[in-house]
Amino acid sequence: xxxxxxxxxxxxxxxxxxxxxxxxxxxxxxxxxxxxxxxxxxxxxxxxxxxxxxxxxxxxxxxxxxxxxxxxxxxxxxxxxxxx
Length: 84
Known about the structure:
By secondary structure, the chain is mainly alpha-helical. The protein has a domain at 8-40. The protein is built from four helices and no strands. The N and C termini lie far apart (51 Å).
């Protein structure tokens, strides 16, 4: 059974939601329903399969002072063009 729900939101947020809904071919109600369906669904850590290569990277950059400029410089050096 479907019921009506009234939400009070900032008008700019509503317009963004409507634009996103239009661009995805869905209604705002469908977007909200899909979000609500996700609430309370936590996936246990043991249910998530993380490849060993990804696990080995965890924490590698902790405390590192790197930003997007560093990454772009790396791309330029390695491939001769940043983000082509």
